[in-house]
Amino acid sequence: MRSFASDNNSGVHPDVLAAMQAANAGHCVGYGEDPWTARAIDLLHRHFGDHVAAYFVFLGTAANVLGLSAVCRQYHSVICAETAHINVDECGSPERFGGFKTLTIPPEHGKIAPGGVRPLLHGFGFVHHSQPRVISITQCTELGTVYTPDEVRALADLAHEHGMLLHMDGARLCNAAASLDLDMAALTRDCGVDVLSFGGTKNGMMYGEAVIFFDPALAHDFVYIRKQGMQLASKMRYVGAQFEALLGGGLWLDNARHANAMAARLAEGVRRVPGVEITRPVQTNAVFARMTRRAIEALQERYFFYVWDENLPEVRWMTSYDTTEGDVDAFVRDLQECAGL
Ligand SMILES: Cc1ncc(COP(=O)(O)O)c(C=O)c1O
User: Fold this and answer.
1) Do residues 101 and 77 lie in contact, with contact meaning Cβ atoms separated by under 8 Å?
2) Cα of 129 to ligand 1 centre, how many Å?
3) Which of 63, 98, 106 lies closest to 82, judged by CA?
4) Regions of the chain with pLDDT less than 50
């Protein structure tokens, strides 16, 4: 089966699996005190800066919730887009485990900007009001769009002017970096990001994400928060080995570039199909489109994918590091048949 539902429908990149297999020899100390984890943390320092504090967790949801929990008290609020994963796709775990409140603003193709955030920046020091603490953005966004470094910097400046922090959900940061042809520090550290959830799973790993604090002082309780949050991997060497495979050479970029290129190819094909309209700028590895319900149902008999917005209706198709040109072309042919029904 080939799926265009999500980049996490793909398997594990063979180099990542080989690295896990190679790590599967002998005994080593658990809970991150192993050489694989140490080398992977060194690689995160190389990509994001020597001074960062970096920790591995299993899931992207956990990276977000625990990273935010490290910098928020329960009377704080986190400002994000209505479409943010933390707002709509984490089953309320930010509220349950973090305890803080999410305040949302309507995004433009998944992105928020200072003008949208400013009206929520009030009530500081007012005892009846949750205290704005973090602006959270997703890079690339849930709609597949990217923030430019200037756009990230503007939000970081706004946060810092108000004594707040900027969090980035970088579940697909590699795709954003590939799209903008920038290194990952240029999109995070150099733009004033304070806390980053850095994704591995969607870019060819089996599991594993990192939480990165650009000011290590923000991380001073994180080891306890991670353990209480049930995300301290006992056999952490397998997470470390995967990140080593991804970040040691150019695999992170090759995978992301390939996924993005396949989405561009898909968009090109979709644009030629009458009755199907692309609804979002295609900048990374997602294509959003509108077509009739009948066409959607017919295509869903051949492929599994998500209807993003039932009302429009709008669908989401995603490509992955292992999507082939043949997969894309076959999908477009099927789309052509279904759209004509
Ligand atoms: C933008 C974004 N952030 C976070 C996550 C969470 O990842 P996980 O499913 O590993 O919890 C996802 C997963 O789809 C995502 O798309």
Assistant:
1) yes
2) 29
3) 106
4) none
Report yes or no: 140 and 109 within 8 Å, Cβ to Cβ: no
pLDDT at 340: 82
- Tell me how far the alpha carbon of residue 60 lies from the centroid of ligand 1, in angstroms: 5
Rounded to an integer, what distance in angstroms lies between the CA atom of residue 285 and that of residue 255?
11
Q: Which residues line ligand 1 (CB under 6 A)?
A: 59-61, 64, 85, 138, 142, 169, 171, 201
Which DSSP state fits 108? B
Using DSSP's 3-state secondary structure scheme, residue 142 falls into coil
Domain span(s) for CATH 3.90.1150.10 in the chain:
252-339
Task: Write down the CATH number for the domain with range 13-248.
Answer: 3.40.640.10
Nearest to 59 by CA among 86, 82, 38: 86
Using CA atoms, how far residue 319 sits from 170, 197, 213, 262, 267, in Å, is 17, 21, 29, 6, 11
Q: Would you give the DSSP letter of residue 111?
A: B
Q: What is the CATH number of domain 252-339?
A: 3.90.1150.10
Query: How far is Cα 304 from Cα 317, in angstroms, rounded to an integer?
Result: 10
Boundaries of CATH 3.40.640.10 in the chain? 13-248
The DSSP 8-state label assigned to residue 13 in this structure reads -
